[in-house]
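User: ok so my PI wants both of these folded by tonight, can you help

Assistant: No problem, let's get them done. Here's the first:
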Amino acid sequence: MSQKRASGIFKKYAIKLLRGLVFGVVTSFLYCPVCFFDPAQDNLRVLLYYSASFILIWELMSFFVNKLNVKVNWVDEPRKKLFQNLQFYLFIFLPLNLIYVKLVFIGDPEVFNFWHLFLLNRHNALTALIILLFFNSLQFYKALHKSFEVNREIEKKHIEYQLLALKNQTNPHFLFNNLNVLSQLIFENTELAEQFIGRFSEVYRYLLEQKEENLVPIETELEFIDAYIFLVKIRHGENINFLINKNSLAGFYVAPITLQLLIENAIKHNEISTKHPLTISIDINGDSFFVQNNVRPKSMVGYSSGVGIDNIMNRYKLLSQQDVIVEESNELFRVLLPKIHTNKKLSGLIN
């Protein structure tokens, strides 16, 4: 063991002992001022008892709050956290304290009768309650501070997303391609042209309405995707196919325009022809859902900054604390995204 490490350990335990002695004096004076000042009393024994009790209680409460009870968060599940603390205090600490006091003073039943033992138990119980509140207050403050930091980061990423959504709305290629299709339909099939205009307006209305949202129901996103697919199918016909399991895709939330960005990414990077049709699948995989397409890379692809995929990965990491998984091979490209369910942590993000 190095001298520096040994010095650190000595300092750590010296602080604990000093803290125990200081609070032993304080608790001795508060709980038993007569014991503390009366020369006839065994003052050293009283001081050592309260000091030892404080050290043991401090370490026990610290171990429970900081080691055993860290999975449940005060901000996310305050009732569950409170219930666990009460359980520990009532059913673990109080029985242990009863045994501890009995063992310490069992050898002197004449001096320490039932009333004295009751007071000693009550004093330790009060000390434990104060220490438990202290550690939980620190933990609550840390959780609250972390929550504020996450919310600030979400707002930052949300601004980036709004910029991306705005770029998608005014994407000249998207506008040009669809307006070009529309101009042809007007002369060739006026009824289909009317449907095209209706779906085209649905797509842009959704982009405008949902750009302020962090999460939307998957059902809402799929309604938008239906309109978007209609436009895509007009351009590519039977050369592009969509397999969407709507029966399974229900009951969770997604970041808006996620599916559109992933479909657009597949179309942008792959050949779409009668010889090489593109198939895009959207389905459930355990606690995730995925967007998958077969791979047939285009010989030439326009400039791609990769902002779309990166934006999706960053937003999902913040919204769900889980990673977006990208799986790529020579045959398939798949993006798996975590299903986000409503809970207290996310309720403030769903308007």
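One down. Here's the second:
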Amino acid sequence: VNGEPHLGHAYEKVLTDVLAFSRKRSPLLEDHDIRVVLDETLKVSEERCLRQSVTVLRDYGNAGVVRVDKSHLRDAVERLIDNALDAMPAGGTLTVIADSETVNGAPYVRVRIKDTGEGIPAEKMDKIFEPFFTTRITRKATGLGLPIAKNIIEEEGGILRIASAEKAGTTVTLLFPDLQTA
């Protein structure tokens, strides 16, 4: 029947996301240069960025080393990048910045993923981490991308923050203890 394979793929995506959200991960924590992890993750989205006329800017400065499960972190960052690209269907700029921030006197590696997309309406900001809540109306939107990414980041010992303004884009900030300066 026409459309069945696509619909089957949509169900598979929902099931995969539900399992990813409910699964307790056992991270294999190892030291990684955050710049390498970001570059590897951005490589996965290169083709989609070209198709959507999204310019990718990188500014890694002297970002540090973090102790994370590399595959889990890549999964979380990939989900965040997918959200950013979903917010810019007609093009825009995706900026990935890695630098440092001091939190309560301790050094952290800070990663910011910024898009020039639609932004998130203020009245929806308090719901964005709720499972199955989405601001998008598409077949592939499960409403689990941000909750999964948040779970992964927190399981890795990190912090996730989001700032957004409607029509002005969104910035997702990830913070991890900086092992280079700790």
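Residues 1-5, 17-22 have pLDDT under 50 and may be disordered. The longest helix spans residues 4-22. Good luck tonight!
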